[in-house]
Amino acid sequence: MVVEENTHAFANAGEALPLSAQDTLAQLDNSGLTRFHLKAMITSGMGFFTDAYDLFIISVVNSLLIPLWHLNALEIALINSVSLLSAALGSYLFGMLADRIGRHRIYGLTLIVLAIGAILSALSPNIFFLLFFRFIMGLGIGGDYPLSATLMSEYANRKDRGKLITMVFSMQGLGLICGPLVAIALLSSGISLDMTWRFMLGVGAIPALATFYLRRQIGETPRFKLMMQGQATSAAENGQQSQVALSGKKPAALPKKPARFALLFTHRYLPWIIGTAGTWFLLDIAYYGTTTSNTLILNGLDPHASPVQHMVEVLLIFLVAALPGYIVAALTIDRLGRKKIQCLGFGMMALTYGLLALVPGLTALIIPFLSVYAMGYFFTEFGPNVTTFVYPAEIFPVRVRSSAHGLAASLGKVGAFVGAFTFPYLLSSVRLPGAMGFAAIVSVLGLILTIFTLPEPNGRSLEEVSGDDELLATLISGQREAIHS
Fold first, then answer.
1. What's the pLDDT score for residue 473?
2. Cβ(438)–Cβ(375) under 8 Å?
3. Cα dist. 151→52, 144, 228 in Å?
4. Residue 209: is its pLDDT beyond 80?
5. For the chain, what are the domain ranges?
């Protein structure tokens, strides 16, 4: 149920916060689901819509450019993967920036970088320009991961936090569906192939530009203001004053802590950064490797089918498997927990890919192959593709939360680069069963790493999970001393 209570208390950085840090965090954790939550979810999700659209559409673009530009295997692999490599850099850089200068100040910048890269990619005169412009676009895509996840987690209430972060990422499912629809429409329109691929790439800029203004309306998160600036109010901006301000005292300084980046490698957080970054890396090898090569996989399965027929097959997989997987994840993540869903997902991915690798008939018959392949997609979305995004937004302290998410997403995109670059070679050398076997092994490794490194944050406040409750207690104590002195 959407309610209005408490929405305006924290929906904008310029509005007054409650008088104490305890009140602020209690209001955030115990609030009902508000319109502001939904607005933040939709505006955050547009970056992932574009990410998924680009993820799918590039495999179609490659199939059109092969005869137009006479691409070889290396060039195909580079087009598939260059934006993923730059996304790794973008995730890390923008994540670090968000912890240093604030989430709000750079929240819309990622979309502008993404849109510029998409538009310029559509205008590319040759492969060298295309690779460079897609590198630029990837910076924006990567930067969107830590910004959107961190902002949503820090505004979310405790009860619905997993669902809200999952819904942000689930916009990727709509992008996966939109890609085939755009491809089918353009391939059936009769326009030239040269114009077709350019339109396909240029469309990726539309959702990013459409939501830029909305992102600028979402203020800095109260958690960042409280824990990083050591103050519980912004009363001066609307004429109210807190008791601390009235006393003439400044809020207590925060205790000394290790440098931001070094904090991630302390005894408490090192296993978690290994777990979040490592499982994301492994997941994206399999996920991006298969998804960016979908047209190559289907061409190998049925080389006589038309490109439009392959687009319809992919669209059906996304409609009946991928999108429902996102929905089930959003509906169950706050009940089942993150760890259980991630383990189940990796396990079922290993099983489905293993079946495709070990049962020869499955890679020779279209319907059986598509059925098992679609099941793998369902458990990827109702599994680690969602939870690897949620985990780092919840378990790390606020002062390094965006950096940690950026680092994990960066390693994930390195895995995506590895998968997108190597799968075309696997499909041509060890064929479809060998490629599926490789994905199965990667999935087993992801399952093992999840079991031994990651905690369960379900039902706990961000401060309790991350250890920020200790820092908060010091801050509150300091405020009380300032008030009574």
1. 61
2. no
3. 20, 11, 14
4. yes
5. 33-220+256-454
* pLDDT tens digit sequence for 136-149: 999 999 999 999 99
365 Cβ contact partners less than 8 Å away, ≥ 6 residues apart: none
How far, in Å, CA of 205 to CA of 362, rounded?
Answer: 38
pLDDT (0 to 100) of residue 259? 58
- Mean of all residue pLDDT scores within the chain: 84
Length of the chain: 485
- DSSP letter at 2 equals B
What are the E-state strand segments in 260-411? none
Coil, strand or helix at 329 = helix
448-479: buried (b, 16+ CB within 10 Å) or exposed (e) per residue? ebbeebbeebbebbbbebbebeebbeebeebb
Average pLDDT estimate for 475-480 = 54
The Cα–Cα gap between 321 and 382 comes to 10
Identify the pLDDT of residue 211: 85
**Residues 165 and 153: beta-carbon distance below 8 Å:** yes
Compute the average pLDDT of residues 243-264. 52
**Residues whose CB falls within 8 Å of the CB of residue 116, separated by 6 or more in sequence, listed in order:** 136, 137, 140, 205
Tell me the fold of 33-220+256-454.
Answer: Growth Hormone; Chain: A; (1.20.1250)
Give the confidence band of 234 by pLDDT, cuts at 50, 70, 90.
Answer: very low
Of 92, 170, 155, nearest to 383 (Cα)?
Answer: 170
Q: Could you please report the per-residue DSSP string of 400-452?
A: GHHHHHHHHHHHHHHHHHHHHHHHHHHHHHTHHHHHHHHHHHHHHHHHHHHHH
Q: How many CB atoms lie within 10 A of CB 110?
A: 27
pLDDT tens digit sequence for 167-192: 999 998 888 889 888 988 998 898 99
Question: 156 with 165: CB under 8 angstroms?
Answer: yes
Q: Please, which residues have CB within 8 angstroms of residue 213's CB and are 6 or more apart in sequence?
A: none
Q: Pick from 376, 449, 347: which is nearest to 408 by CA?
A: 449
CB atoms near residue 71 (< 10 Å): 17
Instruction: Name residue 413's amino acid.
Output: K
User: What whole-number distance in Å separates Cα of residue 44 and Cα of residue 42?
Assistant: 5
Mean pLDDT check: name the lowest of 187-201, 248-262, 330-344, 368-382. Answer: 248-262
pLDDT(6) > 90: no
